[in-house]
Amino acid sequence: MNGYGSSSYKHNKQGKIMSNNNVHWVLEVDINDGKSDDFTALMAEMVKATQADEPDAMIYEWLISGDGKQCHIYERYTDSAATMVHLGNFGSKFAERFLGMATPIGLTVYGDPDAQVREALAGMGAVHMEQLGGFAR
Q: Which CATH architecture has domain 16-129?
């Protein structure tokens, strides 16, 4: 047992603690002026498509600031393969419209995504956080 958690944790190839293979993140965006209604409509379309077409999307939640100008999107996928399915769907169906309505200001990635996911998210300036301790159920 280390000083931060239980010795029952799984370890990745580098010997780092990981509680599972999930990949998750918080994407922070500013909603572009005059695009709030369009953004909300696109969000509904994206939520519906993700729920219907991506069974390995575990969490897909959009949260809005009190003034309606900023949105945080919390996403969690079972593993890197499921993450790539989502990124492919986003790129082919939604990215152009999404980026016309919102400006990404931060992306914090959690878990242990594989090299393909890391490369796919690199263009968004992803900050990767590694598991130190704790658990997910």
A: 2-Layer Sandwich (3.30)
Give the pLDDT of residue 40. Answer: 98
Residue 75 φ/ψ, nearest 5 degrees: -125, 140
pTM of the model: 0.85
Hey, is 52 helix, strand or coil?
helix
Tokens of 45: 């379309």
Query: What would the two tokens of residue 84 be?
Result: 């790539």
pLDDT in tens, 82-128: 999 999 999 999 999 999 999 999 999 999 999 999 999 999 999 99
Helix axes 80-93, 36-53, angle to 10 degrees: 130
User: Would you state the pLDDT for residue 9?
Assistant: 46
d(CA 26, CA 112): 15
pLDDT digits (tens, 9 = 90+) for 21-43: 999 999 999 999 999 999 999 99
Q: Are 113 and 79 in contact (CB under 8 A)?
A: no
In the chain the beta strands, taken as DSSP E runs, fall at 10-11, 17-18, 23-31, 57-64, 70-77, 102-111, 127-129
